[in-house]
Design a protein that fits this description.
Length: 149
């Protein structure tokens, strides 16, 4: 039988090595919307109505078209990937689930080489829209949302 002090020491080391969310089997429902933004017309895709005020207040474009929408459940440290137009790949990785926040690492790859990278801290059930590369007389935007499961 393990003595109480020894048990506590083992438990303490386990907590240091494995954050509580990992032990609990937590995951993050991650939504990714790939958007084509341009000023060629005045149009907002119906699939973007919920973030239309954010798009119009942050970006200067007049047309927003939803190109792709993906949702995936990701455990902390697990990569989620989405193919993008122009031979690119978007990679999102939830790094930490602390309190009411989700920390993501976000990267864009082109032909296997990383061309963009950042980390963001989202509120649980929140989202962020990031400007991306040029595409067809406009730009790609990425709306990333996260909900702790």
């Amino acid at each position: 039988m393990i003595r109480p002090l020894k048990f506590l020491m083992i438990l303490f080391v386990a907590v240091l090595l494995f954050p509580g969310d990992l032990l609990a089997g937590a995951s993050v429902r991650t939504g990714i919307r790939v958007i084509h933004a341009s000023s060629n017309a005045v149009h907002v895709d119906p699939g973007l109505r919920d973030i239309e005020p954010e798009l119009k207040s942050v970006f200067k474009y007049t047309s927003y078209t939803l190109l792709k929408q993906t949702a995936m459940d990701l455990a902390p440290g697990t990569q989620g990937r989405v193919r993008l137009p122009g031979g690119r790949t978007l990679e999102v990785v939830p790094l930490d689930l602390t309190g009411r926040r989700i920390k993501y690492r976000i990267a864009i790859f082109k032909q296997g080489a990383r061309v963009f990278g950042t980390e963001v801290l989202l509120r649980n059930r929140g989202s962020i829209t990031i400007g991306g590369p040029r595409f067809k007389n406009g730009y790609l935007l990425f709306n990333i949302s996260g909900t702790r499961r």
